[in-house]
Amino acid sequence: MKKMVLLYYCMFFCVSLFAQTNFRDITLTQALEQAKKEDKMVFVDCYTSWCAPCKYMADKMFPQEKLGKYMNERFVCMKINVERGEGVDIAAKYGVSAYPTFLILKTDGALIYKIVGGTETADEFIAKVEEGFGEKSAYKMEERYLKGDREETYLFDYVNSLLASGVDDKAREVAGEILAPLSVKKKCSEVYWPIYDNHRLSPIGSENLKFFLENADRFRKMVGSEKVDAKLLFLCDNRLEEMLRGRMPATDADLDAAEKELKKYNLKAAYLCDYIEMMRAINKGDTDKIYSLYPKVYENMSEGKLSYLYFRPILLFSGKGKWTDEQKNGFIKLTKQLAKRMNSQQMQNSLQYFAEAIPKF
């Protein structure tokens, strides 16, 4: 009788095990080799230990029989913590920066499709995976490209499908093929503006962006000042925000260059001048000036930007006896006022906790 119970238990365990998504404890190289043997693709679950949606997918979605059957029939599946060991290299190689991210790879390691974020149901996740193999998917459209088709409308569609699949490197390569045979004048026309306007196709430091900046006035005439100025403003805004966050050098020479850029492109953006003024004050250690600029810079700033721009200038001089009691009280008042208009509970809490900590600064 005991043997029968044990046998039944083992059978039940095995059925349960294979009903769920089978994540194998192997390296990416081993997964690619195994997929080749089994005539499958590779599915990589990129997670972190602190990511709540990652845990939800692991605990609630992937154990489901329907999803497990779908995944196991098509993929060799593996999980990787992107903050440890091989995971760090995988995240860098495939541009993983949000979690969870799921990669679908060919057996040579080429990226077919990238899914960012989890789902509430197994059906939703299956639908997301299926999107990567539909008629308009990069996976399906690649065949024409490999056969040598370079018809422009098709190439634009292929670029968009590559972007939708998260295959940015290939999308930039194909966009480059679209632009390569064109004259300078034609490149600046509205037809090709989507390439220059897309930060994934024309990232900071790229030849595309360099061309755009060198020909901004020509783009204004052919595409329109409103669109071009919005792009220029976005670039200046992004650069100055990175400086204010301490992620880019912000010496006086850097700030002089940023001011010249605003004047060169005739951009009217008072708030960017306020950023520059704030950073000059930080460089000088002029806490009185920083304090006077705080309401001007932050009072009407969006919630998203406040989350990464608000705290640093105050913290730079905390614990050094730089802030007077009057200034601390002013910061507390402003911080509490901002907390009241936040939509996010997390941001409300962050500002409230920060206000409570200011007296110690």
UniProtKB/TrEMBL annotation:
Please state every residue range assigned to the domain named Thioredoxin.
Answer: 17-134
InterPro entries assigned: Thioredoxin-like_sf, Thioredoxin_CS, Thioredoxin_domain
Q: Which Pfam families match?
A: Thioredoxin
Per the UniProt record, which residue ranges are transmembrane? none
The stretch of residues making up the signal peptide is 1-19
What's an example of a GO molecular-function annotation for this chain? protein-disulfide reductase activity
Q: Which SUPFAM superfamilies match?
A: Thioredoxin-like (SSF52833)
Keywords recorded for this protein, A-Z: Disulfide bond, Electron transport, Redox-active center, Signal, Transport
Entries under Gene3D superfamilies matching the protein: Glutaredoxin
In terms of PROSITE patterns, this protein maps to:
THIOREDOXIN_1 (PS00194), THIOREDOXIN_2 (PS51352)
Q: Which GO terms describe its cellular component?
A: cytoplasm
The name this protein carries in UniProt is DUF255 domain-containing protein
Q: What organism is listed for this UniProt entry?
A: Butyricimonas virosa
